[in-house]
Amino acid sequence: MKFARGFKYNGHSSYEKDLIIVNDSDSNDYNIGLEREIITGNTNHARYEAFGLSAKYSSMLEISFTVIKNPDYHISDVEFTREEVREVTAWLTSPTIPMLLSFDDPDEDPVLPVDYFGNFTNVQSFTARGVYGLKLTFLCSSPWGYSREYVYSSIITESGNLTIENTSDDWNVPVYPYITIVPAEHGQITIENITDNGSFSFNCERNVTTYIDCRRLMVSDDTNLISFRDLGWTTDTLDTLYWPRLIHGTNKFKITGNCTIEMKCRFPRKVGEV
Fold it and tell me: What is the pLDDT of residue 22?
């Protein structure tokens, strides 16, 4: 762990627990975690060249770091008690679904932080008679981390534009945003990505907030999923339906309809551990 002093996870922070991250290794290397396997076709007596078909990442990114009691607040009681070990372990290992892990360092530039999603898989003690540190292992749910969440919003009257710069480090794979729409009237809303040449339209009701999860292909309101029929979609619509997405680079959107729109997204960051 080279660039962070504290972290937040599962509703709490290391600062709240009087813990700081320390570098417990003299190595100058740190884990990038981006090893890939190239999937190729077969060769035979007439074809000596194996054609590259695709590639996949060999494993998810794994991060390990050690925490100790903050010496600014703990001078004589630097050892962990059994109850303190229990409290930290319960905090970090209770979640069973991937959750956000965010690091911060007051000495580093706050403009380029990296967040991760996943779970802590192990908590080990660093002992010398007593427990002086805890080595934590975190397995990410992806081969990389993500930018902090970007939020783009606009109030649209009849029609308006929204420009989003996709700075993802995975250039060939689009990013799917989470969109919130608050219609000002009954009617149809259209979200067109001019750059990507795709258009997404649906029916809406005045002041009924609509949530569009483009990655999971779901549209809902505050209580339930909205049926395709209520959205104005037919079987033919579903066959060619375009879900709003962000291709790498500049994306220019045209929104038609009276509404307030908000798009939220995170972009992959291939920097390994922080």
Answer: 85
Using one digit for the tens of pLDDT, what is the confidence trace for 116-138? 999 999 999 877 667 788 999 99
Find how far residue 136's CA is from the centre of its chain.
Answer: 20
- The 10 Å CB-count burial string (b at 16+, else e) for 104-121 is bbeeeeeeebbbbbbbbe
Backbone angles phi, psi at 245, to 5 degrees: -150, 165
pLDDT (tens digit, 9 = 90+) per residue, 239-262? Answer: 889 999 999 999 999 999 999 999
Report helix, strand or coil for 82: helix
**Taking the alpha carbons of 194, 197, 201, 207 in that order, is the dihedral positive or negative?**
negative
Q: How far apart are alpha carbons 73 and 66 in whole angstroms?
A: 18
What's the confidence (pLDDT) of residue 30? 59
| Closest-CA residue to 176 (of 242, 80, 96, 114) | 242
Cα 87 to Cα 59, 96, 170: the distances in Å are 30, 17, 38
Residue 94 DSSP label = -
Alpha carbon dihedral 150, 156, 160, 162, in 10-degree steps, equals 0
Which one is predicted more confidently, 165 or 107? 165
Burial status of residue 62 (CB atoms within 10 A of its CB: 0-12, 13-18, 19 or more): middle
Q: What is the mean pLDDT of residues 174-203?
A: 96
Tokens of 162: 């929204």
272 is written with which tokens? Answer: 């390994």
Laid out side by side, the sheet with 198-204 consists of 159-166, 249-256, 187-193, 198-204
